[in-house]
Amino acid sequence: MVFIAVPKNDTIGALVPHTLEEPIVGRSEGPLAGLTFMVKDLFAIKGRKVSNGNPDFYHHATPAAETAPVIARLLDAGASLIGINVCDEFFYSVLGTNAHYGQPINVRAGNHVTGGSSCGSAAAVAAAMCDFALGTDTGGSIRVPASFCGLVGLRPTYGRIDTRGVTPMAPSYDTVGFLARDAKLARKLGQLLLEGESVTAPITRLILAQDIVGESEASIDQAMWDTLDKLLGAIPKPEQMEIAGEDIVAWRKAFATTQGFEIQSTLLPFVQSHNVNLGPGIKERFEIAAGITFDEAESARAVRGQVTKRLKEIVQPGTVIVLPTTPTLPPERDIPDGASFAEFRTQTLQSTCLAGHAGLPQISIPMGKASGCPVGLSFIGWEGGDETLLDLAATLELFIRA
C-alpha cells in the first residue's frame, strides 16, 4: 500500500486555506502510479467548493456534484491529488499575486513573482511539493509561470483537453494545461489528457518571431540565442520573420477586449450581484470589462479572425514559431497589481496573445537563467501539433541540460 501525505506546512504559500485535508488517492496501478499532483482553485472536486481566488465566491459557492473529468482521468491513471493551489483573483492577472490569499514564493527566484494566474500550481511544482499540477491558460496563465519558475508548461490546442468542471473565464480562449519539472513527464501527461485529432509531423522549419523577440529585454534575448546555439542539429536553423509588426498592439487590444466582453457573461454577474471585494488591479479590470460594448467586441473579433488567418498560414504542419515565452524578467515581489504593473502586463500579453487568438498549442521550456531569474523558450505549433511539441521538448531538454 502506498501512503500519500498531504502537505501540512505550506511555507511557500502555494495552497489555499481550504485545501484538502486528506489526499484523493489514485488507482494503485497505471502510468502515473505513485505520482502526486495539485490543481488550481477552479477545478470541480466532488463534495468541495472552489473560490476562484476570491473568498466571497467561496462563501456563496456550493460543493461540486462531480469531479472535473480531467482530474478523474489522472486519478484513474494512478496519480493522487494532494492539494488545491492559490491563483490570481478570478484569474484576471499574469502577475502571480492575490490580495486575499497571499503571494506564492518562487523558489527559483525568491525576490521575484511566480507569474500567474496559475501561480500556486507553478510554485508547488517548482518547490517539489508535488510532481505536476493542473492550471488553466486564457491569456498566458500556464506559460508565464512556467517561464518564471523554470518549468515545462503546455497551453494545448484549443479544445484538446477537457474543460468540463472548470470555472470559465473567457470560454473562446480558455484551455486546461499542466506544469511539470521535466519534459518526459509532460509528454506522458499529454498522452493521457489530450483528446481529438493529433496532427504529428517532423519539424522541418523553425521561424523566429523577429518583431516579438525585438521587444524582449536584452538578457532574455541573449539567453535565447545562447540556447538556440546549443540546439543546432536538434532543430532546423531558425529563419527570422516579422509576425505582426506594428499590428501587435491591435492584436493585444483585441484579446483584452474579447476577453473582457466574454467575462460579462461568466464572472462579472457574480461580482456585480454580490458586491464582491476585489483586490487592486482586478477591480479596475472588471470595471473596464463591464463597459465593453457589443460593437467593440465585434471589432475585436474581426481582428482576431485576421490574426488567426495570419498565424495558420505561417504555422503549417512541420513549421513552428520560436520566441521567448515572456519578453521581460519576472517583476520583483510585492509590487501592487495596478498602474506600476500595467507595462509588464501589456508587454506580456503582446507575446502570449498569439497562440490564444488562433487556438494554437504553445509549449514553454526552461532555457536557463537571465540576470539570475529563470526564463523560458516557447514554441508555437500547428493545430493538433501538441504531441510534436511535447516530443520536441523532451528532445531539447537533453541538449539544454548538457
UniProtKB/TrEMBL annotation:
Species per Swiss-Prot/TrEMBL record: Methyloceanibacter superfactus
Question: Which residues belong to any copy of the Amidase domain?
Answer: 26-189, 280-390
Q: Which SUPFAM superfamilies match?
A: Amidase signature (AS) enzymes
Q: Which InterPro entries match?
A: Amidase_dom (IPR023631), AS_sf (IPR036928)
Sorted alphabetically, which Pfam families does this protein's record hold? Answer: Amidase
Signal peptide residues are: none
**Protein name stated in the entry:** Amidase domain-containing protein
**Highest rank taxon of the organism:** Bacteria
